[in-house]
Amino acid sequence: MFEFNPDKYYPQETESRVVIRFQDCDPLQHLNNAKYFDYFFNAREDQVPKLYGLEVIDLIRKYKAAWVVYNHNISYVKPAMVGEWVRIMSRIIWHNHNTIVVEYYMTDDSKTQLKTLLWSTMRYVTLAEGKSTDHEGAVADFLKATSGNLDISDLDIKDRVKMLISEFKKS
C-alpha cells in the first residue's frame, strides 16, 4: 500500500526499455497500432510498483474503486519496427477529484525521436455501483506525490507532440 513520505522523492515519470517483438508487428514490420496499448500498459504496470512501492490492486481492494478508461487519444508519429529497442515513458499529467489523465509516449532507444503519444483519461468509479467517486486516502496521496498536474485545458495532443519533439531537440 502506498504511504506518502514527505521526505522521499517521487519521480513523476516511469521509464522502461523494451524490444519490439515480431509477433506484435504487421507485414510491413511496423508495430501493430493496437499493440502500442499493450506495450504502454505493460510498461506502466511493471514500473509503478518499482518506483512507488504500489500495487494498484491493493488500492482497488482497500477503497473498492478503480479507474475506468473513458477516452484514449493517440498520435502515431514514427513507426516502431520489429527488433527495435525503444523507451516507454508514462506519467499522470493531470488529475482532479475523480479523474486522471495518464500520458504514455514511446521514443527510439536514444530518446531523440518521438514515435507515439497516448493520453488515457480515466474516471475513478466504485466497484459495486460503477459510479464516479472521489479520490481519497492513499489514492489522493499517491496522486499528489506523483502527478505533474500540467494545465491541459487549452492543450490538445497535437500541441503536446510538438512540445515533446521540441524537448528532444534541446537534449
The rounded Rg comes to 17 Å
How many domains is the backbone divided into? 1
Helical fraction equals 25-40%
Which stretches are low in confidence, meaning pLDDT under 50 for 5 or more residues running?
A: none
Structural class: alpha+beta
Average pLDDT score = 94
The SSE order reads EHHEEEEHH
The first-level CATH class is given as Alpha Beta
Q: Assign the CATH topology.
A: Thiol Ester Dehydrase, Chain A
Name of the CATH architecture:
Roll
Strand tally is 5
Strand line-up of the largest beta sheet: 1-3-4-5-2
Largest sheet: 5 strands, antiparallel
Q: What separation lies between the terminal Cα atoms? A: 36 Å
Number of helices: 4
CATH superfamily: Hotdog Thioesterase
Give the overall shape.
globular
Keywords: Hydrolase
Organism: Algoriphagus ornithinivorans
GO molecular function: hydrolase activity
InterPro entries: HotDog_dom_sf (IPR029069)
What is this entry, summarized?
The chain has 4 helices and 5 strands; from the N terminus they run βααββββαα. The protein has 171 residues and is of the alpha+beta class.
Walk me through the structure.
With 171 residues, this protein is α+β, with helices and mostly antiparallel strands. The protein has one domain: Thiol Ester Dehydrase, Chain A (Roll). It has four helices and five strands, in the order βααββββαα. The chain has a five-stranded antiparallel sheet with strand order 1-3-4-5-2, with helices on both faces. A hairpin with a 5-residue loop joins strand 4 and strand 5. The longest helix has 18 residues. The chain is globular and about 45 Å long. The termini are far apart. This is Acyl-CoA thioester hydrolase. Keywords: Hydrolase. InterPro entries: HotDog_dom_sf.
